[in-house]
Amino acid sequence: MKGLANIAVAAAFVASVAADSHGHHHARRLAQGSPVAKRAATVAYETAYVYADGSPVSTDEAHECIDDGSCIVLGTATPVYTSPAPTSTSTSSLSTKEAQEFFESKITSSSTSSWSTSTAWTSTSTSTSTSSFSTSTSTSWSSTSTSWSSTSTSSSSTWSTSTISSTSSSASAAASSSSSSTTTVSGSGTKFPSGTVKCSEFPSAYGAVAVDWIGLGGWASIQTTGSWTPGSLISDIVEAVSGGCTEGSFCSYACPAGQTKAQWPTTSQGATGQSIGGLWCNSDGYLELTNDNFDTLCQDGLGGITIKNELSDEVAVCGTNYPGNEMMNIPVLAGAGETVTLTNMNAKTGYEWEGKYTSGQYYVNNKGVTLEQGCVWTSADYPDSAGNWAPVNIGAGTDIYGVTYISIFPNTPTSSAELDFDIEITGDINGDCYLKSGSYYGGGSGCTTSLTTGGSAVIKFKKYGS
């Protein structure tokens, strides 16, 4: 993949060329937005272009790249992007490119209109999947792996589907998920003694962060499967809505700001695309590690991304519990005047959904909304503008080639709420990206930028209209 720069507007383009096979808010899930069609980039054609390394490219070639959707304008494009291959190996011609997009997928509940999200990179092959499972309150759920390609999507009131396109001739074989690491790596925090901590004990001593307002004894989600055989897909998943971690369940948790969960069953995911995450509560009532690549509960992000809250009120930023039930209940609190780290997900060591790399998805609530009010599915205090209905999403992560992307985009069509402050991405970035007075840079429906090599970015929360 190569980056293009339009000299006249100093905008960087990202073009994908032959890359490793891979692929949400998931590809399932790293070129998504909400369960709607992929947002189209607004591109102004100019007469002079160069690659990111300064070498020239013809106008016709650049326009062709833009027209077929393999290039976007960083800063003015949608929160959808293609990932560039390493400059040391990106010698393939644009005609051999393989699209790798930044996107999100959501799951709807037919009885509660709830959604969940997460993000990932995908390569192009046509596939859709639908699953059905129930909660402990007998609420019926219908879900699908939702993503969108450059050309088509579809959705309905109870479920949504879309196409993941791929130049690869082989389709994803199963909904199994694995880390791209092949050896055990050092995680963050204290080594977890697998099989010795009781399921009734929330493992805060080992780095997990309790989300007590969810009502699950601090756990972010509890997915009961009854049994677990590593290497086998799981078809029966019941999600608890109250209580604690029980035998025969995967119990997910939050991690501190700047870190992300390191435990999920890498070879045993939902048979029809459901994501499953957390520690395993065995038949003896003890917690077991589920990811052989880590002996800790959390892993550090790659750093380089912070939030600076310049407002006089706190802001609740809520990440998706992924893998898990995909609720936006992973808390990042930006106190008034404070600077906090936003986890920069590492695609190389992070969760993979059906072989596709994933990135972080965050819900930004209006100022003054607390974590308890905003990091939930439906907010009792702000049912139309918080939680799943928060006004704005932020996407962030580093792909397998080491390129870090950050995007800001509206949480549409789920929410019509307007954010009551401005957001601006500053620092060592390759293009402008901001939300000011309700309008995104370039006048589009969101924007995306990337970090320069070795650079860092600050996402500023600023007074509305400043």
From TrEMBL:
Origin, by domain of life? Eukaryota
Where does the signal peptide begin and end? 1-19
Q: A biological process (GO) annotation for this entry?
A: polysaccharide catabolic process
UniProt keyword terms in alphabetical order: Carbohydrate metabolism, Cell wall, Cell wall biogenesis/degradation, Glycosidase, Hydrolase, Polysaccharide degradation, Secreted, Signal
Just give the chief location class.
secreted
Q: Pfam families from the entry?
A: SUN
Alphabetized InterPro entries for the sequence: Beta-Glucosidase_SUN, SUN
Compartments (UniProt record): Secreted, Cell wall
Q: Which family does it belong to?
A: Belongs to the SUN family.
**Could you tell me where the Low complexity compositional bias lies?**
111-184
Q: Does the keyword Hydrolase apply?
A: yes
Q: Which one of the record's GO molecular function terms can you name? A: hydrolase activity, acting on glycosyl bonds
Q: Report whether Signal shows up as a keyword of the record.
A: yes
Q: What is this protein called?
A: Sun domain containing protein
Stretches the record annotates as Disordered = 111-192
